[in-house]
Amino acid sequence: xxxxxxxxxIYPPSRLLTREAELVPYESDALTAYRARPLAVVLxxxxxxxxxxxxxxxxxxxxxxxxGSGTSLSGGSLPVEGGVVIALNRMNRILRLDPVRRxxxxxxxxxxxxxxxxxxxxxxxxxxxxxxxxxxxxxxNLAFNSGGxxxxxxxxxxxxxxxxxxxxxxxxxxxLGGEGLxxxxxxLLGLFVGSEGLLxxxxxxxxxxxxRPERYHTLxxxxxxxxxxxxxxxxxxxxxxxxxxxxxxxxxxIEAAEAAVGAGYPQAEALLIVELEGEAPEVEAEARLLExxxxxxxxxxxxxxxxxxxxxxxxxxxxxxxxxxxxxSPDYLVQDGVVxxxxxxxxxxxxxxLSQAYGLRVANVFHAGDGNLHPLVLYxxxxxxxxxxxxxxxxxxxxxxxxxxxxVTGEHGVGMEKRAxxxxxxxxxxxxAMERVRLEVDPGRLANRGKVFPGG
Amino acid sequence: xxxxxxxxVQEAVRQAGRLRVQAGGTKPALSAxxxxxxxxxxxxxxxxxxxxxxxxxxxxxxxxxxAEVEALLRAHGQHLPFHPPLAHEGATLGGTVxxxxxxxxxxxxxxxxxxxLGVRFVDGEGRxxxxxxxxxxxxxxxxxxxxxxxxLGAFGVMxxxxxxxxxxxxxxxxxxxxxxxxxxxxxRMERLLALDLMALDLEPPATLWVRLGGLPESLPLxxxxxxxxxxGGEVVEEDEAYWEEARRLAYGPLLVKxxxxxxxxxxxxxxxxxxxxxxxxxxxVYAGLEPEERERLKALGVPHLVLKxxxxxxxxxxxxxxxxxxxxxxxxxxGRFPLS
Lengths: 456, 340
Known about the structure:
- The structure holds 2 protein chains of 2 kinds.
- By secondary structure, chain A is of the alpha+beta class.
- Chain A folds into 3 domains: 1-212 and 426-455, Uridine Diphospho-n-acetylenolpyruvylglucosamine Reductase, domain 3; 213-327, Alpha-Beta Plaits (2-Layer Sandwich), CATH 3.30.70.2190; 329-413, Alpha-Beta Plaits.
- Chain A contains 16 helices and 18 strands.
- Chain A has a 7-stranded antiparallel sheet with strand order 15-12-14-13-17-18-16, sandwiched between helices. A 5-stranded antiparallel sheet of chain A has the order 5-6-10-8-9. A 4-stranded mixed sheet of chain A has the order 1-2-4-3.
- In chain A, helix 8 (226-238) packs antiparallel against helix 13 and helix 13 runs antiparallel to helix 14.
- Chain B has 3 domains: 6-167, Uridine Diphospho-n-acetylenolpyruvylglucosamine Reductase, domain 3, CATH 3.30.465; 171-247, Alpha-Beta Plaits (2-Layer Sandwich), CATH 3.30.70; 254-316, Alpha-Beta Plaits.
- Chain B contains 13 helices and 18 strands.
- In chain B, the strands form 5 sheets. Chain B has a 5-stranded antiparallel sheet. In chain B, strands 15-16-14-17-18 form a 5-stranded antiparallel sheet. A 4-stranded antiparallel sheet of chain B has the order 11-12-10-13, sandwiched between helices.
- In chain B, strand 11 (199-203) and strand 12 form a beta hairpin.
- The interface between A and B is large, with 94 and 82 residues.
């Protein structure tokens, strides 16, 4: 059977893209170093269309990739050459928001930030906040177990997804999890979350909503060295505080953020952002303790946000840091390895050394509270050999994270980019077990073929 | 069989027909062997392997008693925030994960599924598999560690587990408020969901137990605010001892966990008569049931898990969906483990 003819039976012409000009925007995601030309892009508007498409792909042996806004930094939604892209942005309805049960039931194409906006009138919000949250979708967040700045205290997407209706790669539809925080029986949803689109596609997702903290206390501290800022984080933790977020940016990232959004950051080798949150009396008491800790940590300038607007300005620079680095360099690679928090200083020194050895600039922005690094390796793709050098440098950083007892990815996922390194973090036997589960669910390796596993 | 090492566990699995794992024996409805099953006693596989307080992470063998871990954490001002039940009775880390159990203090930061970071387990073919990691944030590879939560040992024998831990609050306070009617209690509970509470329990018919934790200088004011919101409430003197007692779950003859939601409490209250406790703002109830009451839950299709008492089928409903069956086939193709 002709695949395009079969797809035409499901989709009207306006929602079946096959012409070159229509396909180009879908050839890549946020990992722009990779491109692939799909056979077609379909734009389903209903669950039934998604299910029919998956079943058709299965019948014809056509590889398929689900895609949201294409913000994956690991190439997780890169098309398969000649396969189908199932673009889910049109399935963007919040189906239910129940303030008493504190849940939202959403379609996969709903943008992360839209959930918090819808929950706002009820004093609730959706906690996971990847920097891409104004754009990235819940379906993609679920597939990649996205993180954000609040993971130490609040966990990742897996900890905020309570249920999902899923079409498996076999075309079967199953309900995983439920509506509550507590369940009985195996946490199959916990396995599905973070499986990077290899096991199926979420059609509906039930999210947990949290009460918005009564009070935030956001502090910005400037340090003469990156180690100094890292040391301050250890002191904050050592004092028994559990901030909602702790972020560090280095000079290069600060300059980029300033140039891009004018956050009004002080000039510094390193900036630390600490945010406390909770009930007002508790936050006030914690803020006094934090002030003491920071005062002893060698910060030469400390600012505290006095208004919500000032708080947002502090965060604006941090959230814009990735895209801002684009102003400093035509191209860059983002890594997101994790190291144990106490090894941050060591990791940063090593990254600095590698940067000099490879002759490439590296900007650092990272979630210091959970040891999740984001070194941005700057390069110029037009200069022969620079991309390869940048990739080699990025690879060295990943190996460093494994060596220090961490992980190759804290939140971006393995995708296309880190397949080779997964095999350094896990044994062949570990990967084989994962692969066995995948093949049981998808014997033809049709769902997101070529990602995660070293052999694709 | 009482293996002393991971290799011995692998050997035991390879030689076994059908296996049931037990260690502390605190949840006999789940660990008592069925017809034709051999017991794999993991109580010899114990001990904390790594603990770095400044990292908020520890790794221990699966047969390690929760109480042993908690004593170690406590010495460093930390705790397992999901408050594993039956800790004083000898519950182990592996059993807690396999049953998927959390106690009252899970209200503040999450349950066992939110604090497990990594696992090593022996699958149905005797292969040793690792998933997750030993850092608080990690998105690499399939989340088999999360799959283990509530799995009743269906996919493998856990041998080693890593968890995230948090600092224990410097000071705590507990309020008790006895109300006349269930409706009043539920209305108050709903109001309290917006606060940063360590615990919010309902002891039927209508008594609320609320716990706060934080810095000593802020606590008196927070207690006052809480009393204003509640319209009363007496401060409980034996704060620590009370919550330790609460997680003993000394209910019977059948001890059952039933997932719930605050709005579902009235319906559940109509079905339950024995001793019971709703934890975490009504997200679950631990209840003592008579066998016929349990049958009624089944007849009405209410999902639940029996922890104590002799029943052939402790998990209701048994997982039957295609996803479960496929994962089961991948990891336990010979059906050596429970839920086969």
